[in-house]
Amino acid sequence: MENKKTEICPICKGSGQRLVPIVLKTSHEIIMIEQVCITCKGTGKV
Description:
Order of helices and strands: EEEE
Distance between the termini: 29 Å
InterPro entries: HSP_DnaJ_Cys-rich_dom_sf
């Protein structure tokens, strides 16, 4: 069993959230994969 440490989301600064990778896509290409928490999903809104 993994012991995940508490992470702080770079978007909403919420702590204790599980960070999940998201892929930002444009019509041409995939830009990047970044870790955002499942609470704000990268929007900054909780």
